[in-house]
Amino acid sequence: MAAARLCLCLFLCLLRLPRDAFAARPAAAGPGAGRGPGDGMNVLFIIVDDLRPVLGCYGDKLVKSPNIDQLASQSMVFSNAYAQQALCAPSRVSFLTGRRPDTTRLYDFYSYWRVHAGNYSTMPQYFKENGYVTLSVGKVFHPGVSSNYSDDYPYSWSIPPFHPSAEKHENDKTCRGKDGKLHANLVCPVNVTEMPGGTLPDIQSTEKAIHLLNVMKTTRQKFFLAVGYHKPHIPLRYPQEFLKLYPLENITLAPDPWVPKKLPSVAYNPWMDIRQRDDVEALNVSFPYGPLPDDFQRRIRQSYYAAVSYLDVQVGLLLSALDDAGLSNNTIVVFTADHGWSLGEHGEWAKYSNFDVATRVPLMFYVPGMTTSPASQGARVFPYLDPFSHIGGSSPQGQSKTVVELVSLFPTLAELAGLQVPPACPKMSFGVVLCTEGRSIAHYLNLSEGEVEQGKEGSDDTERCSNEEPVALSQYPRPADTPQWNSDKPRLKDIRIMGYSMRAIDYRYTLWVQFDPSNFSADFRNVHAGELYLMDNDPNQDYNVYNNTSQALTAETDEELLMLGVPD
């Protein structure tokens, strides 16, 4: 109970903190200010769609990901990294601008922050303004309204972004069913030669990115190359040979494939985009809680893992090309995802929630000379590894359990590349073009895991509250207290409730509060529901003890909570 009381008190303290408590540390003054360990280096920024950390380097014993694991063996790997919203467009706009969703005012897909919120600079724009050639391949910004139908070109990119031609066929009927006909299925292993154009989007993106690496080798200009991969985003469409890596008899159900008894109905996501796929629709699963048949759950998990191995091949080819171009010793490589994806945990599929399975992402930084010693002339750093024949795994070069956020990517990469770290945003920053609500985590790349943990545990309760307790803030909107057809992806005008969630190393605490979309305000005096999960006893977040804990709190603390709101 003391731990639970600390959880809530810490949350209350954090709500009081000015916004810059979470923001970037300014660059040091004096000689050498603004210089980083990767000063003058190129940046290869790899962003994956819907990838939870089911990778060998994160301890997964089933998934075969030798190329990503090899990258991890040369990198600092963060095992507790979290997105700010488990939805593609809001998450990507958040980490690419260094602002939280309440500042970008994007919770759906249908507004462009420069018009709707403020003319905020982006991470690639900042690199471009500092002399880099900035290049975008695949899904980096979410396409459409949220990036002005241009992936924010020309602000963010030196040349128009590349989108693979096969991308337009992602939701076509290209999945051959048992009846021999083509369907728009969720589970969709394919013969690539039968696909439109004889290819798939991620294959095309890898080919284009390799071409650009070779161009940049020739021009010898500093570059910031962002490569966005689609898989394992649904549909789970990938080359069918990857199924061989995952015999169905080896695939288990999620450890907790039931809807938790004390889960507030507002917290549940009814996975509508899954239900609308031809193969799932044919199952006639009841809305909103009806479970999928066990055998089909296994097939989804099997195809998700297969799609991850297909992704690993693309990453391996890209990193091998970085070697071939002679750029591995002067290029920072960042690997992450926009959010996770539920694989049956809590009776849920897809993203659209505040649980770890939806918000937790892989995050690793390779910085030559910092996370690893520079390779000798001609030595390969990233030789391609075939997941069908490679045996054995690679351990991370360094690993930190520190809780970190994707909103910190902008200041972190700026610092690592030797650029001036953008200043911390003031409390009201809608009119500020360049600032960040993230905090650079570059200093963690210099610390061993033991040193990081010692630094965290050495503070008392007051220091944890006001100073250095690392936390990650996420949020998710809902249209109503109970699951609706639009609960997963409500449009701004339909949002009535916002779930604000804080993840610390030992708990996750969430409040679902009244939200007014007309003025983007959350009313913490009107709490619809709460969730509290204590990680030591409940690592899968199955047992909500929020109501148990609230009974033990004093009336004074209860009143204090009701009078608080999130920072402006």
UniProtKB/TrEMBL annotation:
GO terms for biological process: carbohydrate derivative catabolic process. Pfam families: Sulfatase. Its cofactor is Ca(2+). GO terms for molecular function: iduronate-2-sulfatase activity; metal ion binding. It is an enzyme of class 3 (hydrolase). Its main location: other. It is found in: Lysosome. It catalyses: Hydrolysis of the 2-sulfate groups of the L-iduronate 2-sulfate units of dermatan sulfate, heparan sulfate and heparin. The keyword Endoplasmic reticulum does not apply. Gene3D superfamilies: Alkaline Phosphatase, subunit A (3.40.720.10). InterPro entries: Alkaline_phosphatase_core_sf, IDS, Sulfatase_CS, Sulfatase_N. Residues 1-23 form the signal peptide. Residues 42-418 form the Sulfatase N-terminal domain. Keywords: Calcium, Disulfide bond, Glycoprotein, Hydrolase, Lysosome, Metal-binding, Signal, Zymogen. Its EC number is 3.1.6.13. One of its GO terms (cellular component) is lysosomal lumen. Lysosomal enzyme involved in the degradation pathway of dermatan sulfate and heparan sulfate. Belongs to the sulfatase family. Monomer. The 58-kDa mature form is composed of two chains resulting from proteolitic processing, the 42-kDa chain and the 14-kDa chain that remain stably associated and form the 58-kDa intermediate form which is enzymatically active. This is Iduronate 2-sulfatase.
